[in-house]
Amino acid sequence: MKKSVYAVSAFALCVAGAVHAEPQAEVLHYWTSGGEAKSVAVLQEEFAANGGTWTDMPVAGGGGDAAGTALRARVLSGNAPTAAQIKGPAIQEWYEEGVLADISAVAEENGWADVLPASIASHMQCEGTWCAAPVNVHRVDWIWANADVLAANDITMPTTWEEFNAAAEKLQAAGIIPLAHGGQAWQDATVFEAVALGLLGPDGFRKAFVELDQDALTSDEMIAVFDQMRVLRGYVDPNFPGRDWNLATAMVMNGEAAFQVMGDWAKGEFLAAGKTPGEDFLCASTPGEGFLYNVDSFAMFDVDGDDKKAGQALLAELIVGTKFQEVFNLNKGSIPARVDVALDAFDSCAVLSAEDMNASSEGGSLLPSYAHGMALRGAQSGAITDVVTSHFNSDMSSEEAVQQLASAVLNSL
Amino acid sequence: MQFLERNLPKIMLAPSFVAILIFVYGFIAWTGWVSLTRSRLMPRYEIDGLIQYQRLFDSLRWDTAFGNLFLFGALFIGISMILGLVLAIFLDQNIRAEGAIRTIYLYPMALSMIVTGTAWKWILNPGLGLEAMVRSWGYEDFTFDWLVNSDMAIYTIVIAAIWQSSGFVMALFLAGLRSVDGEIIKAAQIDGIPTWRVYSAIIIPSMAPIFLSAFIVLAHLAIKSFDLVIALTGGGPGFATDLPATYMFSMAFSRGDIGQAASSAMVMMGVVFAIVVPYLYSELRAKND
Description:
The complex is a heterodimer.
Chain A: H1 2-19, E1 24-29, H2 34-49, E2 53-58, H3 65-76, E3 83-85, H4 90-96, H5 104-109, H6 112-115, H7 118-123, E4 125-126, E5 129-130, E6 132-134, E7 138-139, E8 142-146, H8 147-152, H9 161-173, E9 177-179, H10 185-209, H11 214-217, H12 220-233, H13 245-253, E10 257-261, H14 265-272, E11 281-285, E12 291-294, E13 297-300, H15 306-320, H16 322-332, H17 348-363, E14 366-368, H18 378-392, H19 398-412
Parallel strand pairs in A: 1-2, 1-3, 9-10, 12-14
Antiparallel strand pairs in A: 3-13, 4-5, 6-13, 7-12, 8-10, 8-11
Helix pairs in contact in A: 2-16, 10-12, 10-18, 12-19, 18-19
Chain B: H1 2-34, H2 51-58, H3 60-91, H4 98-106, H5 113-124, H6 130-136, H7 153-179, H8 182-190, H9 195-203, H10 208-223, H11 227-232, H12 244-253, H13 258-288
Helix pairs in contact in B: 1-13, 2-13, 3-7, 3-10, 4-7, 5-7, 7-10, 8-9, 10-13, 12-13
């Protein structure tokens, strides 16, 4: 009798094992710094709570370059991870290599199309099928300011670039560095795209940096963008080359400088230093309308085995689930990608960001950031950044910069 | 047994021969192949002509990087050799504490380029290093902002590289000086020939092979310079201090443009060949004579 009980239960276990594979996921990501590692731990816990086995594969360094190299090696050797942190058009680039999976079933079951802004959802789709899951939305076109410095000099947050220039002149006369900036190519590009969005408007920005329209790239408005960059060059201190972005943020924090143009990861620096938004520091979108987003996402790779496929589906479902979107983004300083998450726990800057995202999504001015690899593929955005940074760091004329911009883009295609 | 005796050297060398064949020459060939394709994120193998080389030579950034290679290479090799030679001659004057001084000059070679680059980044930073120091002494107008000036930044890399390797060149030359036959020098001194003539007409010409070795060592250091640039300027301001190696790295690993990376690697190899082949040729000819 006893024997047969064992036999039956052993048999039952085997059947259960075959039918219901335990979800497995190997996740390649580059969230290794303090706040980021904490954020990804949230996902791991939730995954484990749902009965999954998570194999962590963090690759530090190079803003994801090292992770990209590791991923390439894995895919080339035919051993792709379940999911990898990839963003923007790189997702479609990987899809063209024929290695991404189709997770449309999960996406449709959970109604992703209804809860994600349309332009962000389009990044997650590969020729009509869903192939990636968005994690968060960073806004890039922020301007941060030291509240005390502005009050002491009787300046309000600028709403046009002329106002910014006027404020900067005033600050300079008072012996304060108007713009805290670090001279690294991506930071130059971040400021450049904020200026471009303000001066070209959302449609002009889309033509130039999404569609790479040659006329838009060589237009008079583009010359004006480079002119404004030259003006801004006069507002940064002489020691800016090579400075890291968080050191520039620290300059705003301690009142050495007044403004910084940087994505909302800068907010994390302010908060970590115990500063309060609205009191110690101010946040506003850079002058002009529109919203430039930088969306982190996980692309799903084609894997064999039911356990891995189950893990992939579970992972995708959890990533876009409301609970994870809220907890993760509170840790990371960004805002949820889905629009139906309650924002009670978020700070005022994040709430502003979410409101602007919804408004610009309806107005058609929700645009991908070129400087952070959301609008263009690496070769094209790199070619633009080369021109932007070489103009900003030399005495090149704006006309020459525009000519170089057009030819560099053509050369990169 | 006799077979083993005759073939043992070949058997011993075979593994490393195969390894080099695959991992050096095999991958050179692979890179050459990929440089003829339209590879982007992943390598592809359909040959598409010289498109990558056209793109390479149309690219302003490559122009800067390639120009920098020659500017940096010429100054770095030239000044390191002159400085190394002068130091070696001074040390050769039977001075006191020669061993200690020699070690001091040779020491920078023991540092990695990353350390050298980081240290010089701080020294040359106008708000932090040399300029700030001289200004704090009261010379308010003193400016030394090469590091942040896109026209001059490449020279800061030259300075740091020379600091790193001139001691090594000195050691090479010192060995060369010591190997010159003392009898000849004594004979020249008895004939009343001034010391500078002894050096310029006898000792230095007899050191020609040392010059050649120093040149080859420095030239390959210059061409593969990468870590120093990354640590000191990160290729900036803008891309003013890019070198071909940093260009290749950014194309391959951050831009997803493997075709460009492969073609720039092939051009770099061409430059190395242009230097090494004449050297090998002269070496081989000397042996055959």
